[in-house]
Design a protein that fits this description.
Layout: E1 14-18, E2 22-28, E3 39-44, H1 47-62, E4 88-96, E5 103-113, E6 117-127, H2 136-139, H3 145-173, H4 180-199, E7 209-212, E8 216-221, E9 238-243, H5 244-247, H6 253-260, E10 275-281, E11 284-290, E12 298-305, E13 312-319, E14 322-328, E15 336-345, E16 348-355, E17 361-368
Antiparallel strand pairs: 1-2, 2-3, 4-5, 5-6, 7-8, 8-9, 10-11, 10-17, 11-12, 12-13, 13-14, 14-15, 15-16, 16-17
Helix pairs in contact: 3-4
């Protein structure tokens, strides 16, 4: 799926009836403007589902908790914001994909301004019965992750190889003097895609972006080009659809349940990632979100004390059901404040928050929200 060059100010209002008589309403986040649009989810009667989804989305894209801003929801991410010197986002709009009833799949059209300006699309997917992230690594059986990733890599390799073959044929048929511009373009494309074949084909399942439509899961393999040579990248992003019926032999019980509504006792993922947690550090009420985990076991979390609602980012690892995170000062990233060590046990995170200076330990207990 490629980013549309037309800026769309989405004023969509959608109502969908899904499992357990819950209703979802999606509208633009207030206060709205012509320049910035962002989806706000409302669910009833289970309001915490919408709360969870909004928390994930606004922390990731807007860098604050829902409702915690001074004047506008976009004040930390707009171009003229003094709080965001390293780069900033602008939101063109958003669209909702037509999906199975248990799935919410949003496409976010954004623009990033850092060393250069570039527009792109991202995809956010949720289980509408819980508000948790819907992870492709959850819906596919773990022993089939490598198989599906290899299928995607093979399909991408085939597409690149076919394009290379045609481009080399075209290059051989043109005159390098009278058609110099086209000649140079073909040469640049050949170099780009030959490098892509050798350096950029062995993705794992967790590396792919993805989104859901009514009958298909779309796995997205990133483009071959960087910003500087994207003008010659005619293939751009690879969008590879797989029908749910064809995926059925690869689906986990949870995947079958969420996509086909097959009976299952507990439709919560057994993984901690993609969830929001509530509990305590010492005597203080806290909330924590754990969006995803990288294949090297590294990840980042964001937590906050419910009294203050100031997001705190921690970096660390999750391996063999053990969490290890470091919390550093926002003003001086090299200044270590605390360490979190905890275990994922029977759906609960239990451990300690350790003050780096005093070494005092505070018990930490968190439950899925």
């Amino acid at each position: 799926m490629r980013l549309s060059k037309t800026i769309a100010c989405v004023t969509l209002l959608t109502q969908i009836v899904f499992g357990q008589n819950n209703t979802i309403v999606i509208r633009n986040l207030d206060p709205v403007s012509e320049e910035y649009t962002f989806p706000e989810i409302q669910t009833a009667p289970k309001t915490k589902i919408g709360e969870t989804i909004n928390t994930f989305l606004q922390l990731h894209y807007l860098q604050h908790l829902p409702g915690v801003f001074k004047k506008t929801p976009f004040e930390k991410v707009t171009y003229d914001s003094p709080e965001n010197q390293g780069g900033s986002y602008m939101f063109y709009g958003w669209t909702k994909e037509d999906t199975p009833p248990n799935v919410l799949s949003l496409t976010m059209s954004t623009e990033f301004s850092g060393a250069y300006l570039e527009g792109y699309e991202t995809h956010e997917n949720f289980d509408l019965r819980t508000g948790n992230y819907l992870l492709v690594t959850d819906i596919i059986r773990s022993e089939k992750h490598t198989l599906l990733a290899r299928q995607v890599n093979t399909m991408v390799k085939k597409e690149i190889t076919a394009f290379l073959s045609e481009t080399k044929k075209n290059l051989a048929e043109i005159d390098s003097l009278s058609q110099r511009e086209l000649f140079d373009r073909y040469q640049a494309q050949i170099e780009l895609y030959e490098n892509c074949l050798s350096d950029y084909t062995e993705y794992q399942l967790g590396d792919f972006d993805y989104y859901f439509t009514k009958n298909q899961l779309h796995l997205l393999r990133g483009r071959c080009s960087s910003h500087v040579n994207r003008a010659v990248d005619d293939l751009y992003q690879f969008d590879l659809p797989f029908s749910y019926t064809d995926l059925l032999p690869l689906l986990s019980n949870y995947g079958k349940n969420v996509l086909f509504d097959t009976p299952i006792k507990n439709y919560n993922s057994k993984q901690p990632i993609g969830k929001m947690f509530k509990g305590k550090i010492g005597n203080n009420a806290v909330t924590l979100v754990l969006p995803n985990i990288n294949y090297d076991n590294s990840l980042s979390i964001i937590y906050w004390y419910d009294k203050y609602k100031t997001p705190i980012e921690c970096l660390g690892t999750f391996k063999d059901n053990h969490f290890y995170f470091t919390e550093k000062s926002a003003d001086d990233f090299s200044n270590l404040i605390g360490i979190i060590e905890a275990e994922w046990e029977n759906g609960t995170i239990k451990g300690v928050w350790i003050n780096h200076k005093t070494k005092k330990k505070y018990p930490l207990t968190l439950f899925p929200y």
